[in-house]
Amino acid sequence: MPRVACVQMDVKYADREGNTQRIIDSIHALRAQGVDIAVFPECSIGGYCVAERAACQNIAIDRSSPLLGQIQSAADETDMIVILGFAESAGDEYRNTAAILTPHEEARFYVKTHLPELGYDHFVQPGDELPVFETKFGKIGVLICFDVRFPEAARILALEGALAIFLPTNWPKGADISSDVLALARAAENKVYVATCNRVGTENGFEFIGKSKIIDPMGRVLQGAGNEEAVLLADMDFTVSQDKRNVTIPGKHETTVFESRRPELYAHLLSHTVQIAGKNAVK
Questions:
Q1: Which of 12, 159, 162, 212 could form a disulfide with 225 if both were Cys (CB 3.0 to 4.6 A apart)?
Q2: HSE-CB of 234 using CA atoms within 13 angstroms
Q3: For the structural domain made of 3-244, what CATH number should be given?
């Protein structure tokens, strides 16, 4: 039963070394609280709010950066899985990436697949995979921020065996529905734990709302934060998310999460597109 922490922090724009040190300090402090998995916000190393492509170089790092190496060392020293978002430079491209740092193992990565028209995401290439990651506690999935708006992404992870979905995010003012409604829905509709980790404060004119949450497989909030820096702690019993049957009254009121699906009715989701502002999008 892993103990999970979501570290809702105020990320300082372009202060890659300072943000990294705060992450490392938090990891060491969390070890004393028995934390097994620590989650930090989207783009938590360098920030997010850039208005032009040239400014991406102020916040981005590559996967071989010593800063990621320092965080990996903290994960090794504390025997803690660390999940954090960072702006990634990859050759001539930028990506919005989450690192999954497992003690004494090679780093693994997820690249944000669904992109809003906002900040850094204006300039990045989307990922094209929804991987599930094996851990000593069981399979987990990782999404980033706007990904939670699309039920298909979380459903794929759950169908592939993820027992919890971790969501580093940068929810700005106006994104309350993602925190208050959609994250809870993704947990309940897939019967998985969902842990969202947002940031707070302001950056280049954008205000961030916080409201991080750790949500159980029935869509109930175990721990929630306001709009200040906070650390959320909760234990996740993965045997609950392994059981995809909901029993309200045995033999009289039961439902199944996956068995009741009708995939033969859903094919049109993959075949229909709609024209929006000159772009083709799945309808």
A1: 212
A2: 23
A3: 3.60.110.10
Which letter does DSSP use for residue 125 in this model?
A: P
List, by residue number, the catalytic residues. 42, 112, 145
Compute CA distances 235 → 6, 84, 283, whole Å: 12, 19, 38
Pairing of strands 253-256, 245-249: antiparallel
Q: What is the DSSP string of 13-37?
A: TT-HHHHHHHHHHHHHHHHTTT-SE
Phi-psi map region of 226: left, alpha, beta (phi>0 left; psi -120 to 50 alpha): beta
**CB-based contacts of 105: which residues, under 8 Å, 6+ apart?**
none
Task: Judge contact between 95 and 88, C-beta under 8 A.
Answer: yes
List the structure tokens of 251: 């033999």
Give the closest residue to 42 by CA, choosing from 161, 234, 203, 184: 203
pTM (2 d.p.): 0.94
pLDDT in tens, 7-36: 999 999 999 999 999 999 999 999 999 999
